[in-house]
Amino acid sequence: TTHRKKIIAGNWKMNGSLQANAALLQALAAGLQVAAPACAVIVAAPAVYLAQIQALVAGTPIALAAQDVSAHDAGAYTGEVSAAMLAEFGASHALAGHSERRQYHGETDAAVAAKAAAALAGGITPIVCVGETLQEREQGQTAAVVARQLAAVIDLLGARTRDIVVAYEPVWAIGTGRTATPEQAQQVHAALREQLQHADAQDVCILYGGSMNAANAAQLLAQPDIDGGLVGGASLKAQDFLQIVAAAR
Ligand code: PEP
């Protein structure tokens, strides 16, 4: 009994090829035609494939996301891709601050917030990723870490916070096959919801990510504050991803 429409977003990470993308999207589109999704369905693809995928998803319910977005509008930022550029190629969303970007590319809370702001300014909905490491969880810092990560975004965006999507992705659950229990996830989602509520953004969708699969999705998605999933590995297999989509209603 929520008015928040669920979202299932696949994060392909640095995977794919022209041939593999076409095969995967054709299988997804076919599956979604047989069983129309009750949720929004998004795929986050490497930026170079956006043009290909824009054409392939036309006329399907599949929306397109980038995996990253520049904090800058334009200029001397070699290698970066702006929100306006992503929008030109059909992206409606972009991940911001995925843990792999924070970990391997040194993205700070402030940098992630700047990316979220630039995305919104360029007409792209940022999917802001937050989550604690295993060490932080074991030290009892989970609530403080995710609150700090989200606060950086709320502080910069202010009233525009209501236009973002949040993804809670415990780092220890990403790509490990070790998923958070529905109770563990719900606890963090409820805290994030409360923080969003204070920013007058209680209707923001909060996705769970971290080894979500066809077997565990339904239980996670049944939690009151889990509004969808951000799916890595299982998003590369059409049947698995379709089963997760079917579990979101
Ligand atoms: C992710 O990349 O955001 C993710 C959650 O990956 P996985 O589902 O493979 O854990």
From TrEMBL:
Reaction(s) this enzyme catalyzes, per UniProt: D-glyceraldehyde 3-phosphate = dihydroxyacetone phosphate
Catalytic machinery residues: 98 (electrophile), 169 (proton acceptor)
Function: Involved in the gluconeogenesis. Catalyzes stereospecifically the conversion of dihydroxyacetone phosphate (DHAP) to D-glyceraldehyde-3-phosphate (G3P).
Protein name: Triosephosphate isomerase
PANTHER family registered for this protein in UniProt: TRIOSEPHOSPHATE ISOMERASE
One Pfam family matching this protein: TIM
Domain of life: Bacteria
InterPro entries the UniProt entry points to: Aldolase_TIM, TIM_sf, TrioseP_Isoase_bac/euk, Triosephosphate_isomerase, Triosephosphate_isomerase_AS
Subcellular location(s) of the protein: Cytoplasm
Principal EC category: isomerase
Alphabetized UniProt keyword annotations: Cytoplasm, Gluconeogenesis, Glycolysis, Isomerase
Stored Gene3D superfamilies: Aldolase class I (3.20.20.70)
Subunit structure: Homodimer.
Molecular function (Gene Ontology), one example: isomerase activity
Enzyme Commission number(s) of this protein: 5.3.1.1
The family this protein is said to belong to: Belongs to the triosephosphate isomerase family.
